[in-house]
Amino acid sequence: MRLASLLHSPGPPHAFALEGGRIVYGRLSRSRDRLVAVRPRALPHGWFELGPVGVLHVDRATLEGALAGLVAELEKVPARASLVVPNCWVRSLVVEVGELPRNRAEAEELLRWKLKKLLPCRPEEARLDFVPLPDNGRVWTVLGLEKPLAVTEEVFAGRGIAVGRLEPVALTLLSLLPPDPAPQLLLSLDPRTFAAILVGNGAVRLVRHKLLPGAGAAAEAAVLRELAATLAYVRERQNPAGPLTVLVATDVETLRSSVLQWAEAQEGVEVRPLTVRDPRLGEGGEVEPVTAWALLAAGMRVDA
pTM, whole model, 2 decimals? Predict the structure, then answer.
């Protein structure tokens, strides 16, 4: 979320991605522009549970076993790595806070106070990050329950791996958007989650994050409904000068097809799949494209 500068250091060239059915390791080249190693390891269905604030419970023993088997296949266990988690593990919402304190600790304290009426848990039980939006007094907040996130990090620490950055897929993929001063909408879809992030001039302008009601036709209808609402809001509040570019990142073919077909009847919007050139993916062919992209993007990130 923070723009890179010469004083920032590159993050680790190693990344792990957690999915509903597996854990995946990725390592980037020294130039940070290509995946040179990818190793997947299966996880049984139901190894984590969801609640009203994202991930509710992680089966520690199951994750420990899968991670142990995965690192045993690596030439060397990384000391630090980024971690990409499913979009459904977090919740995001826009909070009206008025004037936000410049001190980040004070700003977080104010946000937690505002969240008391919005969350089904105590705010202190949640881990959060936030970004002020261009609209005065509005803050985009991403949060998840502290306990299952901490358990996940402890499992990696037990194998000698310090998790440097933990982010959901949608946030990680922002690093792959083509540079463009015009607004771009990233649409990140998986079987459980709709996530849309509008970016313009290097800053987040709008976020929508919703759980999908099941699969099949119900999920497709929910995606199109949320996308239409998002575009209506963008046109009303952001007033883009030209066609809005929507980049779709999903491995669910039915959702991708539904969005592309829907776009054919729309005016003032250009919808196309997010793509990454094959040479940059290297060994990423062993996993689905979005997973490979997320591993690549996580390794490209810069730490402040």
Answer: 0.88
